[in-house]
Amino acid sequence: MTITEILLRLHQNSYYFFAIVLFVIGFHTMLTHNNLIKKVIGMNVMETAIFLFFVATGYVYGGRAPIIEPGAGHTYVNPLPSALILTGIVVAVSVSAYALSLIVKIYKAYGTIDAEEIMRIRGGESL
């Protein structure tokens, strides 16, 4: 395998690489920030990475939209991952809205959205 073939394969699979990078960025954001809104943003970045990964699995290089024309022998992309991701996007938006509404309630109750400060106020151990 030549270096050109390796670079060509990396280019063809770049969607997977970027999905992994996005997931790691979101995971790092969730783990390293005490601000609850930043944690929700990190969760949304991770969801976006998963959506990108699934849509990339259904992509066919040079494929067309799956609208079948009689007599035409085209290659089509797989529509199932895209359809599933539409449902996933709706669920992700709902979860984000619910999480943000809980953060508003937490802010009203404790006066802060810092997770470590909330744990200190509640008398628990810090994160």
Summary of the model, kept short:
By secondary structure, the protein is an all-alpha fold. The protein is built from five helices and no strands. It has one domain (3-123): Helix Hairpins.
Task: Explain the overall architecture.
The protein is mainly alpha-helical and 127 residues long. It has one domain: Helix Hairpins (Orthogonal Bundle). The chain contains five helices and no strands. The chain has helices at 3-12, 14-32, 36-58, 79-110, 115-122. Belongs to the CPA3 antiporters (TC 2.A.63) subunit C family. It is found in: Membrane. Keywords: Membrane, Transmembrane, Transmembrane helix, Ubiquinone. It is a multi-pass membrane protein. Pfam families: Oxidored_q2 (PF00420).
Q: How many helix segments?
A: 5
Q: Architecture, CATH level 2?
A: Orthogonal Bundle
Mean pLDDT: 89
H-E order = HHHHH
Keyphrases for this structure?
transmembrane helix; NADH-ubiquinone oxidoreductase chain 4L; 127 residues; 5 helices; mainly alpha; membrane; Helix Hairpins
